[in-house]
Structure formats: structure tokens, C-alpha cells
Amino acid sequence: MQSANVLLKKIVRSSVLPFAAQHGMKKDLFPLSRTLSLSLCLKQDNSGSPSEKLDLDAWKTVMKSGLQEEVSETVSEPKELSTLAAAREILEMWRLAGRSVPENISEEQLKTFMECPSKSAKKKYLKYLHIKELYKKNDKRKMDEKRERRQEMQKQVSETDVTKRSSFICLWANSMDKAYNWRVAQSMIFGQPLIFDMSYEKDMSIREVANTVRQIVLSEGCNRRSVDPFHIHFCNFKDDSLYHKEFIKHYREAWGKLLITVTDQCYTDVFPKDKLIYLTADSPKVMKTFDHDKIYIVGSMVDRSIKTGVSLARAKRLGLETAALPLEKYLLWNSGAKNLTLDQMMHILLTLKDTGDWKKALEFVPKRKYCGFVNRPVHELKRTLSLINTLKVGKRQEEVRKQFAKNYAKKLTQK
């Protein structure tokens, strides 16, 4: 009979308890005072043993505690999935949908992504991260290619006898540096001054100041390698300015060893006004020849928005003479502003100083800005340039021929 008892307990456990768990352990399913007694036949047969009663209330409490544990486990699983994990799932879904989503994203970027106020803002932020990641991959690829090329060059050098010449090349470079420094040192005593006006920091952004300093560094290197270099002056230069910080970034320890003159004074306080000429593209006066007795001033400014008249206004306030390069006289200028970079100006001035030839000097103007040098009268070249521009715009050849025929007929009538 004990085996029958055990069998009955198993039946109750396998049938009643799952049923109670599925129905949420409702109280009306099991009354509070009800107990399940074994059948009388079982009690009579098992007279020697005490009567066994199964308390359903105890079962309910046990099953309710077990069910709560199961429910807490199921509820804790989505709680464990934090907002970051949910955001990562959203990103994965968007990536599968074909949207521009970065492959690797940090927790801080995920937090900023979740803090975006709208869905369009989230898309824009993800697109920004995706483009940034592509730039990093491209830079890494370029660095790897440079490393591979460097390794190949090293292998080629090791295979040939170029390593024997490296000591000679280093000796030659050191001797040339000494010669260049000697020339610049002589120019600081006997050379013609060239002034860089460093008073345009307020008119530029941080990026434009960095570009300006980069161009001045190139100009200083070009001047140092010249046969007859200028004596470079940095006027209106203030310590702890953006110019100063950018120069220290480029030169580092060599900043204090440069053979140039740096002063916080204005050039009108250092040099006489009658010898100063301010070079600006906005000047109405065109420079005809290079004067070795004059002191030329170049504005240290790179302006992407092209604010016209800034340097011209400064020169007028100081009562200085101004001049512009004769670009239209020697070049068939194309569309665009007649502004040149500082290193291009340095190349032009050095060539004019050495040769006095405008054609050689203006070869340093970028070729995309002009169609060619002036070999014929200017009005004929302008006419051909207008014809080229009309063809570029896309007008029909018939209209161009008609216009040419009208102009030709007018010329005949005038004769």
C-alpha cells in the first residue's frame, strides 16, 4: 500500500501542481481549509501507519514560491539587458536594413546616441560616426601602404650599394644646412627686409591661423634655401598668441634658433614709412618692377571666406603705399579671386629679386587659375577667353557663330 501512496503522490504532483502554476495560483482553486485525504480503503489497509494527509495550502505556498522564482528569473532577464544592449540591438537591426551605421561603437557614443531627441538626430549622429570610421580606416590603410613601401625601399637599399652612399648624403645635407644658415645670417645684416604682418589673428578662425602658420613655415624654408634670402621680420607678434602656439608646434626646440627677427612692435615704428609698400590684391596700384630699396609687407592671413579689403584698409589707416601683383597684365586670368598663398608670394618675390623676370616669377601661380601667359594684345585674349567660357557653359555652336557674325558685321560697318 505504501507503493500505492507513493504513486498517488506522484500523480498529484504531476497533474495538480502544474495546473495550479499555470493558473497563477488562484485562491479559489484551493480553499484555505481544504485538505486532500487518502481513500478509506487505503487507510484501512495501512492501519499500522498513521493517516497521511496532503495539505494543499502548504503545496500552494511551496508552488507559489517556486513560481515567483521562475517569474523573477524571466523578468530579470530583460532587466539584465541594459539600455546599452538594447541600443546595440537597434544598431544591428539598422545595419541589416542597410543604413549607415558604424561597425564599432563605444559606450559613450551609445549613451549620446540614446540621448538624441529624435529619430532623425539619431540617424545623423550614426551617419557622422560611420563617416568618421571610414576616414580612420582610410588613414590606417594609407599608413599601412606607406609602411609597406618603406619596407620595400629598405629591402632595395639593403640589396644595393646605396647604404655606402648614405654617410656621404648625410654629410652633404649637414654641409648644405650650414651654408644655408650662413646665408640667412648674412641676410640679417646686409639683406633686404621682408615683413610678415601678424596682426590678423582676430580676423581668422583657429583652423585658418594653423593654415597661415603652415604657409609661413614653407615660406621660411624657401627663403632659407635661396641664393639671396630676405631678412624676415615678424611684426605685431605677441607671445602666447595662436600664431606663437602654432609655430611652437611646427618648430618645437628650433623655434628659438630661427634666424629671423620677431617683435611685438608695428613695422611703422621700426622702419620709415616712405620705404614701406604693403602688398595686397585689393590695391588699385599695380606693381611694375621690383624695387630693392623698398621694404615689402605681406599680410599673414589665410581667409577662406575671402573678406576683401581688410589688408588694404589697414594700410590706408597707417598711411602706407600699397601695390598689387600685375596678374592680369601677364596672365590670361580665369574665373576666381586673385589671392595667392604666402609661400607662393615668397617664391614670386625671391624670383623677382634674383632675376627681375615677371614670367619666371609668375610661373609659381597655380595653373588652374589662368589659361596662359599673354603673348597677344589683351583685348584679343579676353575675346577668346569669353568664347571659351561660353562653350564651357554649354551654349550651342550656332549661337556662338551668330554672335561672331554680328560682331564681324559691326566691324565692317564701322570701317
From TrEMBL:
Keywords: Coiled coil, Methyltransferase, Mitochondrion, S-adenosyl-L-methionine, Transferase, Transit peptide, tRNA processing
Main localization of the protein described in the UniProt heading: mitochondrion
Matches recorded under CDD domains: Trm10_MRRP1
Stated name of the protein: tRNA methyltransferase 10 homolog C
Domain SAM-dependent MTase TRM10-type, residue spans: 180-372
Coiled coil regions in record: 136-163
Location within or outside the cell: Mitochondrion
Annotated Gene3D superfamilies: 3.40.1280.30
Domain of life: Eukaryota
A molecular-function term among this protein's GO annotations: tRNA (adenine(9)-N1)-methyltransferase activity
GO biological process: methylation; mitochondrial tRNA 5'-end processing; positive regulation of mitochondrial translation
Catalytic activity: adenosine(9) in tRNA + S-adenosyl-L-methionine = N(1)-methyladenosine(9) in tRNA + S-adenosyl-L-homocysteine + H(+); an adenosine in mRNA + S-adenosyl-L-methionine = an N(1)-methyladenosine in mRNA + S-adenosyl-L-homocysteine + H(+); guanosine(9) in tRNA + S-adenosyl-L-methionine = N(1)-methylguanosine(9) in tRNA + S-adenosyl-L-homocysteine + H(+)
Enzyme Commission identifier(s): 2.1.1.218, 2.1.1.221
UniProt source species: Himantopus himantopus (Black-winged stilt)
Listed GO CC annotations: mitochondrion; nucleoplasm
